[in-house]
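In the design runs reported in the main text, the only information available to the sequence generator was the tokenized backbone. The following block is the verbatim input for one such run; it is reproduced so that readers can re-run the procedure and compare outputs position by position.
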């Protein structure tokens, strides 16, 4: 299942900075929480990104290769049935077309301080490994910081547009 939520500030942009935030999460309750937090962050900062949820990680490759996809950031859970986050990251990393897009890929997980998971994640060249916080404000701050960072980061193969980042 693919669920797309369009931010009320969405303007069709030609660059990835206003592209899709793709969230790969199989758990319904986690998707509900993530939707609320991401939407609040986007609204607060007037960001024009779409939020795209992929509940089935096995559909991620097809979506990322589709003409509909315009990725800015990929946020993935690790523990998912059929295709876990590590296997998905490896598939994306090994695909020359997707790898060349240089889309930041981060893990957002309940696996916490699992050192083996962190080593495995960074061994797959992920751009971040974060634990899902338990309280709303901490979660909001984390997501806000992640998006703000990637809005101003220089990334190969991505045209840069000026982004105004509000102070908290």
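Verbatim output:
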């Amino acid at each position: 299942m693919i669920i797309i939520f369009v931010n009320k500030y969405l303007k069709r942009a030609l660059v990835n900075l206003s592209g899709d935030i793709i969230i790969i999460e199989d758990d319904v309750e986690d998707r509900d929480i993530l939707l609320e937090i991401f939407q609040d962050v986007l609204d607060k900062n007037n960001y024009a990104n779409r939020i795209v949820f992929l509940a089935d990680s096995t559909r991620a490759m097809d979506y990322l290769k589709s003409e509909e996809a315009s990725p800015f950031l990929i946020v993935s859970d690790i523990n998912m049935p059929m295709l876990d986050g590590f296997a998905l990251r490896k598939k994306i990393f090994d695909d020359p077309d997707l790898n060349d897009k240089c889309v930041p890929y981060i893990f957002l997980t309940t696996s916490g301080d699992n050192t083996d998971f962190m080593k495995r994640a960074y061994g797959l060249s992920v751009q971040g490994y974060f634990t899902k916080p338990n309280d709303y404000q901490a979660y909001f701050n984390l997501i806000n910081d992640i998006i703000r960072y990637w809005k101003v980061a220089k990334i190969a193969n991505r045209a840069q547009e000026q982004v105004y980042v509000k102070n908290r």
